[in-house]
Amino acid sequence: MIKEKGILFILSGPSGVGKGTVRKKLFEEELDLQYSISMTTRDRRTGEVDGVDYFYKSREEFEKLVKEGELLEYAQYVNNYYGTPRKYVEETIEKGLDVFLEIEVQGAMQVKKNFPQGVFIFLFPPSLEELKNRIVNRGTESQELVLNRLKEARNEIEMMDAYDYVVVNDQVETAVDKVKAIIKSEHLKRERIAKQYKQILEDELS
């Protein structure tokens, strides 16, 4: 019997494109997906559980793991590190479970370098005008910050060639259906199961 490995799926795209919304809706429908648990140096908040909400590490431990290549990507926000642990992703995939990572474009480029066998999905806004409306409608950012975000979004859109798939997020339900179709098709790719079939044939013929 073939034991299929899981796959790491990376959903990425410019700020304001709706990555979090698509991911939440997807997880309501796709119960077999495992959300990638991040590692952090920030203090644990009341009710949070190590290995469920985050993997909590000291600054020294985190920096040691960075040096050892044990993080697929990491970044620093407000004096704390956040990152994606390689070990958790690899162990989950070995169990035959898919791991889903929702991340900014810069982080996705780090993952691409450290884990190129992942499947990279770029979530694309219907238009830059629509992206601007979404950022403005958050009501949390100044005009200057909105313009900076749009400028950054243009730069990130130019990085689209590094991705395997592009999904336009015009309607959340439609975008989720497309991501689900990508997940199904990736599991049917010949090269993913050819090695395992060949191994079974060799074992039976030897």
From TrEMBL:
<feature type="domain" description="Guanylate kinase-like">
    <location>
        <begin position="6"/>
        <end position="184"/>
    </location>
</feature>
<dbReference type="InterPro" id="IPR027417">
    <property type="entry name" value="P-loop_NTPase"/>
</dbReference>
<dbReference type="Pfam" id="PF00625">
    <property type="entry name" value="Guanylate_kin"/>
</dbReference>
<dbReference type="InterPro" id="IPR008144">
    <property type="entry name" value="Guanylate_kin-like_dom"/>
</dbReference>
<keyword id="KW-0808">Transferase</keyword>
<keyword id="KW-0418">Kinase</keyword>
<dbReference type="InterPro" id="IPR020590">
    <property type="entry name" value="Guanylate_kinase_CS"/>
</dbReference>
<dbReference type="GO" id="GO:0005829">
    <property type="term" value="C:cytosol"/>
</dbReference>
<dbReference type="InterPro" id="IPR017665">
    <property type="entry name" value="Guanylate_kinase"/>
</dbReference>
<dbReference type="InterPro" id="IPR008145">
    <property type="entry name" value="GK/Ca_channel_bsu"/>
</dbReference>
<protein>
    <recommendedName>
        <fullName>Guanylate kinase</fullName>
        <ecNumber>2.7.4.8</ecNumber>
    </recommendedName>
</protein>
<keyword id="KW-0547">Nucleotide-binding</keyword>
<keyword id="KW-0963">Cytoplasm</keyword>
<keyword id="KW-0067">ATP-binding</keyword>
<dbReference type="GO" id="GO:0005524">
    <property type="term" value="F:ATP binding"/>
</dbReference>
<comment type="similarity">
    <text>Belongs to the guanylate kinase family.</text>
</comment>
<comment type="function">
    <text>Essential for recycling GMP and indirectly, cGMP.</text>
</comment>
<dbReference type="GO" id="GO:0004385">
    <property type="term" value="F:GMP kinase activity"/>
</dbReference>
<feature type="binding site">
    <location>
        <begin position="13"/>
        <end position="20"/>
    </location>
    <ligand>
        <name>ATP</name>
    </ligand>
</feature>
